[in-house]
UniProtKB/TrEMBL annotation:
Gene Ontology terms: cellular component: cytosol
UniProt entry keywords in alphabetical sequence: Cytoplasm, Methyltransferase, rRNA processing, S-adenosyl-L-methionine, Transferase
PANTHER family linked: S-ADENOSYL-L-METHIONINE-DEPENDENT METHYLTRANSFERASES SUPERFAMILY PROTEIN (PTHR31760)
Lineage, broadest ranks: Bacteria, Pseudomonadati, Pseudomonadota, Gammaproteobacteria, Lysobacterales
Pfam families in UniProt: GidB (PF02527)
InterPro entries hit by this protein: rRNA_ssu_MeTfrase_G, SAM-dependent_MTases_sf
Keyword set includes Transferase: yes
Protein name: 16S rRNA (Guanine(527)-N(7))-methyltransferase RsmG
Cytoplasm keyword on record: yes
GO terms assigned for molecular function: rRNA (guanine-N7-)-methyltransferase activity
Length: 168
């Protein structure tokens, strides 16, 4: 897919990144659809400080996709996901993974719901909540928290969500 709202270089940057990472080239289409949606919503709602779509490929998509080899299936809670990073790229790359996008900011949660709907991500859902308030003890095999600063902070707010033997 070459979304007309994205510069042509964005698609080639993503294709090169997928090839370098050993990921399926077919992921480019839904990832570009997500990126186009993020760029469009970001103009109005300031979802991410990164504005340049090419930089978004590197700093958002490729960074998120770096986790793909380490997560096959099961459940994942993406705490403080913001605009869905890394949760949405992971849900796209791993359709067998059940992803919960945890975000307390209302405008970001609205974007997430729209992204999940438009992208047809049946394996993703949005929990508009603070991680520490989410009442789903030991429900997840994996936790991600890209925007949180320390491992101790992640455990403090979301440790109750991780099943015994789960992965951070």
């Amino acid at each position: 897919m070459n979304d007309t709202s994205l510069p042509a270089e964005v698609g080639s940057d993503l294709a090169n990144g997928l090839r370098t990472m050993g990921l399926d080239a077919a992921l480019a289409e839904p990832l570009l659809a997500y990126l186009a949606l993020l760029v469009r919503w970001n103009r109005t709602y300031n979802l991410t400080a990164i504005r340049d779509p090419r930089e978004m490929v590197t700093r958002h998509l490729r960074d998120s996709l770096a986790m793909v080899p380490h997560i096959e299936s099961g459940t994942l809670a993406d705490l403080g996901t913001g605009p869905g990073l890394p949760g949405i790229p992971l849900a796209i790359a791993r359709p067998q993974l059940r992803v919960t996008l945890v975000e307390s900011n209302g405008k970001k949660a609205r974007f997430l719901r729209e992204a999940v709907r438009q992208l047809g991500l049946d394996n993703a859902r949005v929990a508009e909540s603070r991680a520490e308030a989410l009442d789903e003890p030991a429900a997840y095999d994996n936790l991600t928290a890209r925007a949180m600063d320390t491992l101790a902070g992640i455990v403090a707010v979301g440790g109750h969500l991780l099943r015994p033997g789960g992965h951070l």
